[in-house]
Amino acid sequence: MNNLIIVTGLLYVISAVGYILFLFLQKQYFHRVGQILLATGFLCNSIVIGFYFAKTGQIPVRNLHETLLVTGWAIAGVFFAFQYKFKIKVLGGYAAPLAAISVIAAFLVPYKTVEAQNIFNSIWLILHVISIFLGHAAFAMACGVGLLYVAQENAIKTKKHGFFYKRLPSLDLLDSTGYACIITGFTLLTIGLITGFIYAKSVWGKFWSWDPKEVWSGITWLLYAAILHGRLTVGWRGKKAAIMAVIGFIVVLFTFFGVNFLLKGHHGIFTR
Question: What is the Cα 49 distance to its own chain's centre?
């Protein structure tokens, strides 16, 4: 299975190169190559995850190796969903490298055998994990779109219409795409938290235990709720919304990875 993980990582890396070449050279051939390779990598990634699930009968997030593999899979899958809807081709130059980094990191992390535990045998855990991973991937796309928005706005303000102006979508399209990403991510995060509460009750006997991961997940939810509230009530759009999307994803990264390594809690079991 290690060979297939290597192949997945290589496909993602070469796909990233294709998307980046498309950004610079604007040749549809490079976009097509990047798209095909990313889709093939996503298929291989899915096979690896399916193999682990079939082998253990449990969702493969039992250690850092498996968690990173699912992260790469979620990023690639969510990117394709938004690419199909909004047709922002250059976003692949952001999504493919993220997926590649996740899978390469998974390969480099030593695989630690985890004994089968009843803690992993729950439909609520499966729903919780899938919702959280896909939600975080949507927030990652919102961050990428936000970065593109800032670059495009700066290009327009200089009035030189240079490199980015000719290659990036309109500000309106970027703004609406970023908003859709955040709406999707927030909805999935909400579902993930609700199923997580139910799972926690079944495993640890209470819905909330002030575990560091729970606290930071709550902070993340409140932050994105504030972003959406600001857009709907005081018109947080454009550059302000783009910057908030980037800040939000930084908080997501700390919640997803930093908490497990820096703070102790129930969720540390998933990164050992």
Answer: 16
Q: Give every CB contact of residue 173 below 8 A, 6+ residues apart in sequence.
A: 86, 88
Q: Report whether pLDDT(272) > 70.
A: no
Domain ranges of the chain: 1-118, 122-272
pLDDT at residue 208 in the model: 73
Q: How far apart are CA 92 and CA 267, in angstroms?
A: 31
| Helices (H), ranges, the chain | 2-25, 28-56, 64-86, 92-108, 123-158, 163-167, 171-204, 212-234, 238-253, 259-262
* Burial of 218: CB neighbours in 10 Å, binned 0-12, 13-18, 19+: middle
Single-letter amino acid code for the residue at 91: L
Task: Please report, to the nearest 10 degrees, the dihedral formed by the alpha carbons of residues 19, 189, 65, 102 taken in order.
Answer: 20
Q: Class of the 1-118 domain?
A: mainly alpha
d(Cα 196, Cα 130) in Å, to the nearest integer? 11
Distance CA 185, CA 133 (A): 9
Q: What is the pTM of this model?
A: 0.92
User: DSSP characters for 175-230?
Assistant: HHHHHHHHHHHHHHHHHHHHHHHHHHHHHHSSS----HHHHHHHHHHHHHHHHHHH
